[in-house]
Amino acid sequence: MVQIYYFQLFANAAGNLIIAFMWITGLHYGESAELYYEICPPLKVIDVIYGLSCIACAAGAIVVRQKLAHYKKNAPTWYIGFIAVTLILGLISSVAVYLAVTFASEGYLEIKLAELMRYAVIVIAGVCFHIPLNYVYFIKRKDLFVN
Question: Model-level pTM?
């Protein structure tokens, strides 16, 4: 079962690198990136910071994968921490974008509060379900992680 975590973390790293490229270059806005950045200049800074955090998460995924692969004693803690950090960084980015668009675009752009709340619910669900389930999973296998 631990092999699934190996693949998941490699896939997570690859996904984070793709997301980082899209956010740093503004590709997630499509062909309108320059228009968005002109109307709301803080978006460019937020996008670059989030893109760099995604690169850090990609590196973190590989580090955590290696710890799990070598059955390091603290590997489950690293994995659960990695999940929490990834979820929280996404939420912080969403809040920052919401605030930037709300206050810096002078009404030209609009993000509905419901969109932000939807992501907040995903983070809360991740924290309330995904993390405890993984905690129980690794507690039952703590005898494997002794190196």
Answer: 0.86
